[in-house]
Amino acid sequence: MVAEHANPLPAHRGEPACPASLHVCALSRQLAKRGHRVTVYVRRSDPDQPDGRTRMARGVSVAYLDAGPARPLSEDEHAEHTGAFGTALAAVLDEDVPDVLHAIGWTSGLAALHAQAHSEKDQSGTPIVQTFHSLNASEQRSGLPDRPDRARMETILAARADHVLVNSTDQQGSWPACACPATT
Prior knowledge:
Layout: H1 9-12, H2 19-33, E1 38-43, E2 53-57, E3 60-65, H3 75-78, H4 82-95, E4 101-104, H5 106-118, E5 128-131, H6 136-141, H7 148-160, E6 163-165, H8 169-172
Parallel strand pairs: 1-3, 4-5, 5-6
Antiparallel strand pairs: 2-3
């Protein structure tokens, strides 16, 4: 699972966490309960976070990747370090090619595509599942700002991912029929 900005460990420990981190925590634990081995790749946001993988729960580990400063980033700063995160992800995936890459959020999706393109061992093209927590098109209907670069990236991700998961019928209706290969 690629969750650049959503570290599930605080949520797992019962500490305050953002909604995306809660989602990643619950999803990764449920996948592990069903027999899957899950590694959640997140951006190192604190210099004290460990190298390598940290066990979160049975069948779930978290791996911190260096990409940008080791501090929390604002939403606008995440995209600036997505390329570096994708490069770091490609390096670790060369050591352990997964069965599937599940990207949570649009910057994580960009990182997954970057990693897939730059992986030396993943010549077969690991399938990418893209989950959007929100879409700029949906946000605009709610009165939030238009972010044309993000909207363009979301469209590209939807077209290039093997599967797309959305969280509402509003999000599902935000895509042209030809943009998503498989929307669930």
